[in-house]
């Protein structure tokens, strides 16, 4: 009997010690895991829409647009989706404090890249590497150039377009917004960045500005640092990793970014204007069809995407982003964070391809780092 009691006491003691050990482990480890999960989840989950579609009103302060044409059921669903994007943009602009006028590039209205077609009551902000080739073509057609002329002309489409659509003043642009259908086309920031790299650097034409820039990147980030990409010792164009390293350094120095990869938030300042249509390249065919029907231009232009690149960029994401570390991908997020937020994109489909950092502190530092763009108004993390 005494032996049994002694064994029971020993078992009870061990159970108590195990419970204490589990308890203290939970207290110490679980909060750390929760912090990492929450921090990472922010980059991977899109913002949820809580507002239902609301029919656009014509009250004071809203744009007075042409009467909407009768749309079929599918186009009506597209219209609801576009209205949700519009409402999300306006709500997020207010939340981030980007709708308040100021003197910096985030809060100063930029009319430089807008095309205003007063004849057809259409306004477009040209975002490079986001179906810009297609809509430059469409605006040239609307300007009166024939398809045959555009095919044979040796002039750059932008030059032809600006001959008919001069860069507007801010006052003229705001006036046109009251009587026109306005739109921009957004693209996932990291897909757009990769498209710009491939088009302008990897396949740069000889003796061009971007060819010269590529050579400078190689000298600074490959030879000066004595780095040679595996299997690419003789590569004459910068690797994607070298380009990203250059990009991060440029932003840290506060220098202006090339227009082909500049953030939309600075390029078009979408929080400073009341865009009617926010098209996405992911749904471009439907969005374009809806836009053209709304503008009653079906007899003049057609929905299309003239992609001048070399192969679909979307199919190349895993190949190129697997060259980067995860901390580098987070650094890119902070460069384009406002574009991610305003157009409801996430790092899902990109972060998982990144190379795990050898030093976990580098990843944590990249996650918790402040945005490169200075915005003294409220931020959301």
From TrEMBL:
It is a single-pass type II membrane protein. It is found in: Golgi apparatus membrane. InterPro entries: Carb_sulfotrans_8-10, Sulfotransferase. Keywords: Carbohydrate metabolism, Glycoprotein, Golgi apparatus, Membrane, Signal-anchor, Transferase, Transmembrane, Transmembrane helix. The chain crosses the membrane at residues 21-40. One of its GO terms (molecular function) is sulfotransferase activity. One of its GO terms (cellular component) is Golgi membrane. Its EC number is 2.8.2.-. One of its GO terms (biological process) is carbohydrate biosynthetic process. It holds the Pfam family Sulfotransfer_2. Belongs to the sulfotransferase 2 family. PANTHER family: CARBOHYDRATE SULFOTRANSFERASE. This is Carbohydrate sulfotransferase. It comes from Phyllotreta striolata (Striped flea beetle).
